[in-house]
Structures are given as structure tokens and as C-alpha cells.
Amino acid sequence: MWYNAYMKFRQALFWDVNPEKIDAERNAEYIIERILDLGHDDEVRWVRKFYDISLIKKVVDNPRRLRSDTKKLWTLMLQNN
Questions:
Q1: Alpha-carbon Rg of the chain, whole angstroms?
Q2: Does residue 55 contact residue 28 with C-beta atoms inside 8 Å?
């Protein structure tokens, strides 16, 4: 499933686009949002390793990006980072 620093995105996670056309850098916020909301453990670990913590916090802090429960969880998890 993993390709060096990039990953092969699951169609179920990115049902509205062709996962093969997602650019990990250009579409970073979209990817972070989907994976924090709906991703598996290995995908979340990849996000935490691949993206800067400030970018992840930016997605979490945006009130329209994540589901309410997801936002609460990630706000708590990122408090000390």
C-alpha cells in the first residue's frame, strides 16, 4: 500500500475523485481532512509522518473541514504538539 513518502489512496476514502490523480502536496488539506475523518490507522500514521503538524492543525482548526466528533478528538490529540 505504501510507496516511499507517498501512499496509494483508497477509492473508498476518495470516492468523489480518481485517487490516482491526487497529488499529495497540492491536495494536502483535502487529503488530511479525509484521512482524519475516515482513514484507517495506517493512513493516519502516514498523515502524521508526511505532513507538517502546523498544516494538520490548520485543517483541524477550520470549522467546516471535519465532522464535529473528529474535530474534538484531533483538537485534544494535537494539544501538546
A1: 12
A2: yes
- As beta bridge partners, residue 77 has none
Largest Cα–Cα separation, the chain: 35
Please give the backbone phi and psi of residue 2, each rounded to the nearest 5 degrees, phi first: -100, 140
Q: Name every residue whose Cβ is closer than 8 Å to that of residue 71 and which is 6 or more positions away in sequence.
A: 60, 63, 65
Instruction: Report pLDDT digits (tens) over 28-78.
Output: 999 999 999 999 999 999 999 999 999 999 999 997 889 999 999 999 999
- For residue 2, the surrounding DSSP H or E stretch is strand 2-3
Phi, psi for 6 (deg, rounded to 5):
-105, 160
